[in-house]
Amino acid sequence: MNPRSVIITYLLFSTNHTESLKSSTHNVHTLRITQNMLQTITPLKNTKHLLVSAYVDQRVKDLDIRIIGIFKRDSIQPLHCVFCCTNVLSKTTPATILQHSDHFGFPFATTDVMCQIPQNCNATRVTLLTTPDKESASDSTWLPIRNQKSDRQKEENMKFDFTVCISNLFGDYNNVLQFHYKLQMVIYNTSCGPELDRLLQNYSQEGFVEMVPWPIDKHLNPSRGWLHSEHGGDVHYFGQLTTLNECIYRSMERSRYVLLNDIDEIIMPYQHDDLMSLMNTLQNQNPNTGIFLIENHTYPKKPFNQSKWGPLPQWNGVPGFDILVHIYREEPNRNIYHPHKLIVQPRAVQQTSVHDVLMMSATKFKVPPDVCRIIHSPIRTPTDPPLDRLHVDTRLWDFKDKLLPNVIKVLQRAELLTSETQN
Ligand SMILES: *[C@@H]1O[C@H](CO)[C@@H](O)[C@H](O)[C@H]1NC(C)=O
Ligand SMILES: *[C@@H]1O[C@H](CO)[C@@H](O)[C@H](O)[C@H]1NC(C)=O
Ligand SMILES: *[C@@H]1O[C@H](CO)[C@@H](O)[C@H](O)[C@H]1NC(C)=O
Ligand SMILES: *[C@@H]1O[C@H](CO)[C@@H](O)[C@H](O)[C@H]1NC(C)=O
Ligand SMILES: *[C@@H]1O[C@H](CO)[C@@H](O)[C@H](O)[C@H]1NC(C)=O
Predict the structure, then answer these.
(1) Are 129 and 137 in contact (CB under 8 A)?
(2) Number of structural domains, the chain?
(3) Which ligand 3 atom minimizes the distance to the CA of 374?
(4) What predicted TM-score, i.e. pTM, was given to this entire model?
(5) Domain limits for position 120
């Protein structure tokens, strides 16, 4: 990646409710990272499986718990749930194992385990056992139970409109400026570069970003690709399918919508000024819809046009690239499968994959590309298509007056601008 260029991004859509979010210290405080007391990924004793987190799923019944895990598909065995009820162990109850249908051939797959809390148990924690004998629970790792009724009441009056789930941050990913959304963001972090680390530390202390440690590489050999037959490894794309599902449950009681897009993608409204008015319109037109599919469009790395917005001199040395120069859109080939990204109401989703929802309780709607589409500016593109096969799209430039000052602010926040170049 060229270290002398800059990536500019986001913050586009939500300036108004962002302000109200910022002015409400109440909101900001509750967003402070509650670092998991346990690790985010814990091996399940006597098995090859990993457990991630446990949520009350009140859509089923208030006594139902959904444990999200990463299970070895060829080693599924019966499991038993045991709860910590205040200070005593419950009796064990049988677990129902629901493996997600999407795994792209990898040996490990996202798996939900449903458990029922026994009567008269004020459950605080849960774990799974391979035998119905609860004595074997003594040295188990316990998962705290999230989204309990008391949490739900607390969250009632502090809803977000949007949560962006950045499913995986790994390697030397270091596109500093891409991180300025000002929406609630949940980021699953395996590793990142030093400048981005500094910025995210600052954001998470201020409460805009919730960092979830995601040390998947300590437990499995995660694949950097999406297809096992091609890319090998234990699990699809650093465990992305699991983090997306985890993020939906994490957001269920506090966010109206969840955006499941990658860091190099912008969900861009073409007929509305911001995402909120877009969603209000779409929701009015489609009251029963809970899943909105947004078409992916690629803006290749080359050619680009920096006649108007070349990188500013003070951005020299900032890692990343400038998305404002990527104004040439590839026309998708609609004869082959054309992927979407998702905006969902978290309460409408039981299980999700990357480009589609697997189990849901609402209808789906394909948003027309002239209303909203994904602007996808990959770091690399395999080919540089000729100009005459591309469409000019300068929609991003409509946001430059909001974008550029914010980019400068983010750079200052990350201490990437020296005082000399700030003037
Ligand atoms: C559960 O908690 C409630 C409220 O904290 C309490 O009134 C009740 O006695 C508890 N039940 C048990 C079985 O511990
Ligand atoms: C991301 O994870 C890496 C590796 O554990 C850690 O060094 C870094 O501080 C984390 N960054 C943030 C912002 O949490
Ligand atoms: C996005 O769409 C483009 C066509 O515009 C296609 O070439 C590309 O593979 C798609 N990428 C993803 C990640 O869906
Ligand atoms: C792209 O750059 C050229 C100058 O190099 C300019 O004439 C042209 O108007 C630009 N295209 C757009 C869409 O702005
Ligand atoms: C984050 O950065 C801003 C701007 O540089 C600074 O004012 C603030 O004190 C920083 N916050 C923390 C918690 O370090």
Answers:
(1) yes
(2) 1
(3) 1
(4) 0.86
(5) 42-146
